[in-house]
Amino acid sequence: MKFKCPTCDMQLKAEPEMAGKIVRCPGCNTKLSIPASAATPPPPSGLPAPSGLPAPSGVAPPEDAFGAEHEHDHGAPEHSQEQAYSYQPKERGGWEETDPANPNPWLALAIGAVAALAWLGIMFPFGKGAPGTAPVDTMDYLHDLFLERTWVNYMETFFFFWALALLYLKGQKLRHQKDAMLLDVLPAEIASEINRENVGHFIDHLYGLPGRLRDSLMVNRIRKGLELFEVRQSNGEVSNMMSAQSSIDSSRIGGSYSLVKVFLWAIPILGFIGTVLGLSVAIGSIDLSDMTDMEKVMKSFGSVTSGLGTAFDTTLLGLVLAMFLNFPMNAVAKSEDDNLNNIDAFCNEILLPRLNDGGGVAGGDTNGLMETLVKAVASSQKEFLVDLNASSKQVKEQADNLDKRAAAHQQRVDAEFATALNRMRDDLTNAVKDSIKTTTDYTRALSSGIQSLNTLLSELGGKQILIHQVKKKGWFSRE
Predict the structure, then answer these.
(1) What is the per-residue pLDDT across 266-283, written as a single tens digit (0 to 9) for each?
(2) Closest CA to 220 of 211, 15, 252, 103
């Protein structure tokens, strides 16, 4: 159904099931409600015949899309009426097409940096305990998680907000594409069908749209299809071009998520890097050089626990941020896929059925020609299916081999990573056990020595010890 914007009076269209929804006018960006029922103006009664042939006898003289009545001259040649509806194609250069899916990465970088700094600034006042101490409450823990860990946490936060900025800019582009879907790009006021006589008027209508609105996936695809139809007058070629353009648009949209997927991969990897750094600090802080200094030993154990906390917190932050990033990315991707499907549906259900190339060749043995064409198409289709089956079989074999190699590689990586972690854990456990055992043995020996000394002192307490001085013989001694 069709309706007009009450502000800018732009002709818009929407599906009947969208009645009552609030949308923005693509022309003036004003919010408006789609009416429950909109009167669609009937197509003009006087239209040229679909194939450009003269109108049947007894029918009033037709009018073109602009209401100009054509007179019949029975004495004129047969092709005079065809010349009356002829349209001279204009030289058109199209318009510059902007990227419909890839946002500016540098603008997203600036937005992500500002957002990351703002988030860290919000977390800063919630720090309550001294650095290195246990968190007091949840907000204090979040403060420590973002601000008092290694540089890895800062990079994870920055990458997360950079990716969110990319998704935000993609959402703005998607909004522009959805606004263009409301445009009445093929108005029925021009003609109910599109043929070689009036296709130029439809193209001129597209060129008359505002530049901001016509630069969209739907308008660009329809313009290319109509311009091809203007030159070739072939429904089949237009259909093939539409299919190829749909594949191109789908590939462009899929490739626009490459940078976001890099961030989605890099954030958990940074978390594992932080884990390795934390474990290295924990193991390196163990000082067993002087086991007699208990205060030093306990301080060493405190450094170990602090390093382990840093290791696990960086991994936790990376996994949580990656999970939160995955939801909006998939939501935007689904919205873009739905919008692309709506464009495909419009081209297949609205544009292509309205194209009329005249019904093929005029005159000649059309039945024989059609039979030959059917046989040629059937033979080509048979060969194509055979080649397609062979290619599909090869592709399937290659895919199975790739899956097997990927699974084996992943199992090997998981096994080596688990072995390394287990070895590191066992080394740390053995070192701690040895330290505790040495400390225990030293304490037990010290206790035994003190007990022996107490026993000796108690035995000496009931006895007298006489000390005799022995005189030395000298030169003048009497003895």
Answers:
(1) 998 988 887 777 777 666
(2) 211
